[in-house]
Specification:
5-stranded mixed sheet; alpha/beta; 5 strands
């Protein structure tokens, strides 16, 4: 009987050492992300977690800034979902024209932007199934437009602000 006991002990020791060798802590998607007043847009799910953490925090406003030029009529679908969630939760999405520009040079661009925001309806099903978008409750959104060096109308930033009571 002693040889079987030794084999069982050896197998158990090997199993424990194998388990302890694999004991690394993976980066979890549920890992806490600290809120930031400025979140850079990258079209990946980590952006959603960063923005959700920031908008559900006590910060008065959270700005989404862009690495790349985003035209008002080419708003990424990921951002359209966030804007639709603001409206779904009773918030207001408004368009802020470029600074020092009373009337837009190209009013059709603004009309196109409003039209593209209404195309967000197709994203409502995704919003209903993804709880991350509920973090915008009590927030409004502003799409701040600006002119780039070429004079093109682009989205400078999105700003999520706490709704005034």
């Amino acid at each position: 009987m002693k040889p079987n006991f030794r084999i069982c002990t050896l197998v158990a020791a090997l199993a424990l050492s194998a388990l302890s060798a694999c004991n690394t802590t993976p980066i979890s998607s549920t890992e806490a992300i600290s809120p930031q007043a400025r979140v850079s847009f990258i079209d990946i799910s980590k952006f959603d977690r960063e923005l959700a953490s920031s908008v559900e925090s006590p910060l008065e406003s959270v700005d989404v800034v862009f690495y790349d030029r985003v035209g008002p009529n080419n708003m990424p679908e990921r951002l359209q979902k966030w804007l639709a969630a603001v409206e779904k939760n009773g918030g207001v999405v408004r368009v802020v024209p470029p600074p020092n520009e009373i009337a837009p040079r190209d009013p059709l661009a603004l009309i196109g932007l409003v039209g593209s925001l209404f195309s967000v309806i197709k994203n409502m099903a995704a919003i209903n199934t993804d709880r991350v978008f509920e973090t915008v409750k009590g927030r409004d959104a502003a799409i701040a437009l600006e002119r780039n060096a070429a004079g093109e109308l682009v989205v400078g930033r999105l700003q999520f602000t706490k709704r005034k009571p």
